[in-house]
Design brief:
Blueprint lengths: L1 H9 L16 H16 L18 H13 L5 H7 L4 H13 L10 H13 L10 H4 L18 H13 L11 H10 L4 H13 L2
Helix pairs in contact: 2-5, 3-4, 3-5, 6-10, 8-9, 8-10
Length: about 210
């Protein structure tokens, strides 16, 4: 790299023009990490068997990487995840993001029809009276999310989604003092307009999306 930079200077090219590209994700190493550490809570393929723990299969890679970085820096609080993330390098986080993104998400089932009806209305149209936007605007009609910005929540366990919505509303997530969790801060604002029944309805509806 040093020799390349010297050559760049010699011929008048800016150093950034020849900067090394980021390393490619190491999926083999990521799989080893998943099997040894992540699988207990998130499954070997990113599909959690426990409703309290999120499924990560099919999640946008950049989102996973960003959340791991937030855990490591303390932007996002969770004792278990912070302890795990503290051992990861930037390359490890990128590789884990790529691994989970490469795993096919598995469909889930919504069970409460009355909650699903309310959740569907909020998901598609929001609630103008309280200023809540349609969830589909950021998470998509099927809950697949938007790479680099918003997570997949279609098929996610309703128990986990409800806990996160409550955390956003209470300011326990997305309100770090440094303001680094930009999307989390947006969700904090959105959650202020949601009642507990509406949060339950959205979580139930999202669980059945595919």
């Amino acid at each position: 790299m040093k020799r390349t930079l010297l050559l760049a200077v010699a011929i008048g090219l800016p150093a950034f023009a020849v900067a090394q590209a980021p390393a490619k994700p190491d999926l083999a190493k990521a799989r080893d990490t998943v099997n040894q550490v992540c699988a207990a809570c998130h499954g070997t393929d990113g599909t959690s068997a426990l409703p309290a723990n999120p499924s990560l299969a099919g999640m946008p890679a950049d989102y996973i990487t960003a959340q791991l970085a937030h855990f490591k820096s303390g932007v996002r609080q969770n004792a278990i995840m912070q302890g795990f993330a503290s051992t990861l390098t930037d390359a490890d986080m990128v590789s884990l993001g790529a691994f989970f993104a490469s795993q096919p998400s598995k469909p889930n089932i919504a069970k409460d029809a009355s909650l699903v009806r309310l959740g569907q209305k909020l998901w598609r149209a929001g609630d103008a009276a309280t200023g809540v936007p349609a969830c589909s605007a950021c998470h998509g009609p099927t809950g697949a999310g938007i790479p680099k910005l918003y997570p997949r929540i279609g098929g996610q366990w309703s128990d986990y989604t409800l806990v996160q919505l409550k955390a956003f509303k209470a300011g326990e997530r997305g309100m770090d003092k440094a303001g680094k969790d930009v999307q989390g801060r947006i969700m904090h604002g959105v959650a202020q307009g949601l009642t507990e029944e509406q949060m339950r309805a959205l979580a139930e509806y999202a669980q059945g999306l595919r």
